[in-house]
Amino acid sequence: MALCAAFALATFVSVAPARAAYNPISIQHCFVTVPKAMSKLGSGTQIDYVNTSHKTATHITFVVAYRNSGSHYVRKVVDQGTFAPGAQVQHHFDLYNDVVFGGKEVQSCQAARVVFNDGTVWSNGM
Asked: Less packed terminus of the chain by CB within 10 Å, N or C?
């Protein structure tokens, strides 16, 4: 009996993190773009991603963390449209075009909320 309970607990623990880690949007590239000539400010943020779910997404909220020499920022941006399953999406946003450029690398970049065309919503709680 104790062995069954231990097996059930081990099974639950090993399955739970996999579900929590699921994100229907796979980020391929995410970076702050190089300033335009004669500017110190970033030129926005490029996010390239794939909808890995089996449903069409219509609104995707991204959370992007960026650090330059003076500050650490965490900002959100929403991509709206029709994003079919498996389609590669490459979008440039005005995100971080108002901060001093500190390099292309972002600290983190992830989808935090996805609204699908059937009305369902996925969220990672951010």
From this structure: N
